[in-house]
């Protein structure tokens, strides 16, 4: 009897494209055509769910998806612990404090006023560093905070730095390295550990080959 497909959550956006490319190079082909959010690969061994980045830990935590591709930033904000079976070579970014170019002067601030999507990280980071903060939650385009005067500072992910540069902002401090992990629901792992371990071995080999190919 054919086994049920492995259930896999992928985050919308940049990480999905890279993940699909890597999986495709391993012969796991699927597409989310016509705005479909669920797709099986051609072999029928994998079923993929296309979810909003910040919702991914919820789907894996509830066991709706057994596996997921997720950044350490999003995992931290979820407040949940997951087994991390693999760290991907792509998607690395830095969590940074940034502000308008040349304008930062902490001495005058009673508390750092910071706009961010990453409220848990920001509060915890500055709490650990005994620095008072006032955190304003935004859901995207965080760089507008200092530009429009909502707050002098932002805590956000910086990858190429293009968004900061384009908006006359600069990094004040790099706070943490962010990596992308393959996460798994613990109960799902127990039930499917042989297949999942084989899949993780295949991902490690496949990703090394994929990186070599891309460098050619
Ligand atoms: C992320 C992040 C920055 C940008 C950084 O935003 O929040 O805005 O990418 O990338 P860069 O350093 O390469 O310019 P995302 O594209 O996820 O969109 P969002 O602002 O709507 O969250």
UniProtKB/TrEMBL annotation:
Keywords: Amino-acid biosynthesis, ATP-binding, Cytoplasm, Glycosyltransferase, Histidine biosynthesis, Nucleotide-binding, Transferase. One of its GO terms (biological process) is L-histidine biosynthetic process. Transmembrane segments: none annotated. Gene3D superfamilies: Periplasmic binding protein-like II (3.40.190.10). InterPro entries: ATP_PRibTrfase_cat (IPR013820), ATP_PRibTrfase_CS (IPR018198), ATP_PRibTrfase_HisG (IPR001348), ATP_PRibTrfase_HisG_short (IPR024893). It is found in: Cytoplasm. This is ATP phosphoribosyltransferase. The gene is hisG.
């Amino acid at each position: 009897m054919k086994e049920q497909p492995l259930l896999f959550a992928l985050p919308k956006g940049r990480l999905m494209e890279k993940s699909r490319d890597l999986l495709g190079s391993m012969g796991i082909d699927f597409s989310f055509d016509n705005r479909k959010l669920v797709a099986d690969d051609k072999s029928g061994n994998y079923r993929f769910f296309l979810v909003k980045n910040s919702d991914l830990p919820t789907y894996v935590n509830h066991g709706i998806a057994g596996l997921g591709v997720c950044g350490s930033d999003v995992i931290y904000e979820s407040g949940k612990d997951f087994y991390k079976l693999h760290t991907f070579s792509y998607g690395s970014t830095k969590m940074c404090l940034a502000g308008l170019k040349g304008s930062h002067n902490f001495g005058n601030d009673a508390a750092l006023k910071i706009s961010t999507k990453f409220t848990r990280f920001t509060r915890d980071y500055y709490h650990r560093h005994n620095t008072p903060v006032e955190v304003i939650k935004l859901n995207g385009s965080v760089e507008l905070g200092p530009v429009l005067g909502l707050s002098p500072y932002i805590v956000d992910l910086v990858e190429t730095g293009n968004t900061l540069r384009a908006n006359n902002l600069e990094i004040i401090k790099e706070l943490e390295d962010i990596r992308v992990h393959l996460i798994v629901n613990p109960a799902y792992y127990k039930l499917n550990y042989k297949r999942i371990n084989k899949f993780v071995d295949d991902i490690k080999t496949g990703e090394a080959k994929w990186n070599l190919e891309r460098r050619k």
